[in-house]
């Protein structure tokens, strides 16, 4: 999948669902490097917030990305 397609999938997901995690990107769009794509989108001018959260049962930490603008 081309980076531009990955970028548009991520932006569309952020606009419709509000946020995305690495796991969601992997399952829904087969994007294995969400962190890198988020970095690229920020470089393109998107205002994306990173929020570190913990899974309520396992305590495993993960990052949820939210589009602010």
How are helices and strands ordered from N to C?
HEHHEE
- How many H/I helical runs? 3
Largest sheet: 3 strands, antiparallel
Q: How many angstroms does the end-to-end distance come to?
A: 26 Å
Report the helical percentage. 40-55%
Strand content: 15-25%
The largest beta-sheet arranges its strands as: 1-3-2
Total beta strand runs: 3
Question: Mean pLDDT across all residues, rounded?
Answer: 95
Q: How does the overall form come out from the CA principal axes?
A: globular
Weakly predicted, low-confidence segments = none
Give me the secondary-structure category. Answer: alpha+beta
Computed CA radius of gyration, to the nearest angstrom:
12 Å
Explained architecture:
- This protein is α+β, with helices and mostly antiparallel strands and 69 residues long.
- It contains 3 helices and 3 strands.
- The chain has helices at residues 3-17, 22-29, 34-43; strands spanning 19-21, 48-54, 61-67.
- It has a 3-stranded antiparallel β-sheet with strand order 1-3-2.
- Helix 1 packs across helix 3 (34-43).
- The radius of gyration is 12 Å and the shape is globular.
- The termini are far apart.
């Amino acid at each position: 999948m081309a980076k531009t397609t990955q970028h548009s999938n991520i932006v569309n997901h952020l606009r419709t669902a509000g946020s995305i995690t690495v796991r969601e990107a992997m399952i829904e769009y087969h994007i294995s490097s969400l962190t890198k794509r988020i970095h690229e989108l920020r470089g393109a001018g998107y205002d994306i917030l990173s929020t570190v959260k913990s899974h309520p049962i396992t305590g495993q930490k993960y990052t949820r990305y939210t589009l602010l603008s």
